[in-house]
Amino acid sequence: MLKNKIAVITGGARGIGFAIADKMAKNGADIAILDLCDDAAGKEACEKIASNGVKCSFYRCNVSDFAQSEEVVKQIITDFGRVDILVNNAGITRDKLTLAMTEADYDAVLNVNLKGTFNMIKHTYRQFAKNKYGKIINISSVVGLMGNAGQANYSASKAGVVGLTKTIAKELATRGINCNAIAPGFIGTHMTDEMTEAAQNEIKKSIPMAKIGTPEDVANLALFLASDMSSYITGEVIKVDGGLYM
Ligand SMILES: NC(=O)c1ccc[n+]([C@@H]2O[C@H](COP(=O)([O-])OP(=O)(O)OC[C@H]3O[C@@H](n4cnc5c(N)ncnc54)[C@H](O)[C@@H]3O)[C@@H](O)[C@H]2O)c1
Asked: What is the position in ligand 1's atom list of the atom closest to the CA of 65?
């Protein structure tokens, strides 16, 4: 489905980002993964992705750093020639009730989840517009749509990603570029592993399908949005949540 396409995935070394990179590689795309992780972890992830018979390179990058992400995008375009698919997946949490949340907790989450997404779009925007082709996929969250106690920073960042997605979709709609967001519910990754078993069981009770999703559930939708099967879909926010929020 993605033969000869070049996909850039932020936070691609593990979790949902890795599953998306691996799924796209299985479908023929060459992959650049950006992550904060150390070189050994990045290299290991890349080797697994490249074992699908595609090119994969790891770039150590903090997406919240405007200048650093600009340099990395330039390097990717030098190494791969262009970017066809951009997946803004890197994200963090610093959960606390607002009473206990510090300014640093708030800023850290907004800087990675929202500003990091803006940075990557900003630095690839010109080449997308010039190439008149592109698929931008931003990973939001159901809590950006429904709110969640203890996640003022995270839910605000993910709601911001929705506004950013629709704006970019409108700005680039006539240039052959689709920009959509995925809003996962509870997906089993390091992010959710940090929760106690009791908290996880409580969550399962609120999910109509009564189970936590897998990174592959999200990757399947990302593949569809990255492919030309979704060419008339833009500015959408699609949930992958087992019916949690409807
Ligand atoms: N797991 C869930 O239940 C869930 C639900 C909704 C949305 N999401 C979103 O999905 C995305 C992936 O989450 P995950 O569960 O796979 O998390 P994860 O913690 O397993 O993986 C996140 C990856 O992003 C990288 N990263 C973090 N900060 C970065 C930065 N500043 N620059 C570059 N890379 C950075 C991490 O090193 C890590 O490899 C996030 O945006 C998250 O908010 C997750």
From this structure: 31
Does ligand 1 have an atom closer than 6 angstroms to the CB of 49?
Answer: no
What pLDDT is attached to residue 86?
99
Compute the distance from residue 142 Cα to the ligand 1 centre, in Å.
14
DSSP characters for 35-101? ESS-HHHHHHHHHHHHTTTS-EEEEE--TT-HHHHHHHHHHHHHHHS--SEEEE-------B-TTT-
Instruction: Point out the ligand 1 atom lying closest to the alpha carbon of residue 112.
Output: 31
Q: Is the CB of 187 within 6 Å of ligand 1? A: yes
pLDDT tens, position by position, 205-230: 999 999 999 999 999 999 999 999 99
pLDDT digits (tens, 9 = 90+) for 87-143: 999 999 999 999 999 999 999 999 999 999 999 999 999 999 999 999 999 999 999
Mean per-residue pLDDT of the chain: 97
pLDDT digits (tens, 9 = 90+) for 174-199: 999 999 999 999 999 988 887 888 88
The identity of residue 7, as a single letter, is A
Please indicate whether residue 17, judged by its CB atom, sits closer than 6 Å to ligand 1.
yes
- DSSP symbol at 245: -
Domains of the chain: 6-240 (3.40.50.720)
